[in-house]
Specification:
The protein has about 140 residues and is mainly alpha-helical. The protein has 4 helices and no strands.
């Protein structure tokens, strides 16, 4: 009897793990579609499940070198390349530290968006994919 329970548990555990992976894949593909169609969007116009997926809650705990291995980095790079393509900039150069700093700024805006949407602190919505102007002042209303 314990063997049967163990086999069933492992089957359920494996299926749940597959479901989570599929959800991340679906979220990633949904993210790419959303970004492609909404490059001018402000953070208050993005579905919450996408900003949750894009936000790396512990990015300050990671080494800068490890950021590029996250799914959030992949979404960020797609958005940056889509933004540059829309501006007709097919080639551009940034140092690695500049890429990382831009990613951290983007992550900070996503964190501020969460605070603005889930608390009484109101922040003027910022365009998430206007990478040339991400460092503009955040205005708390």
């Amino acid at each position: 009897m314990p063997l049967c329970i163990c086999i069933i548990y492992n089957h359920i555990k494996t299926n749940v793990k597959k479901q989570c992976i599929m959800n991340e894949e679906e979220l990633f593909l949904e993210s790419l579609d959303f970004i492609k169609m909404n490059l001018d969007v402000t953070f208050d116009e993005v579905p919450e499940h996408l900003t949750d997926f894009w936000r790396l809650d512990n990015f300050t705990d990671l080494y800068r070198e490890d950021l590029a291995s996250t799914k959030q980095w992949s979404v960020f790079m797609y958005a940056l390349l889509a933004y540059k393509k829309e501006k007709n900039i097919m080639e551009f150069k940034l140092r690695v530290n500049e890429f990382v700093d831009l990613f951290i700024t983007w992550q900070t805006i996503l964190a501020i968006a969460e605070v603005s949407l889930k608390t009484d602190i109101n922040v003027k919505p910022v365009k998430l994919f206007d990478f040339d102007n991400l460092n503009d002042d955040i205005i708390i209303l």
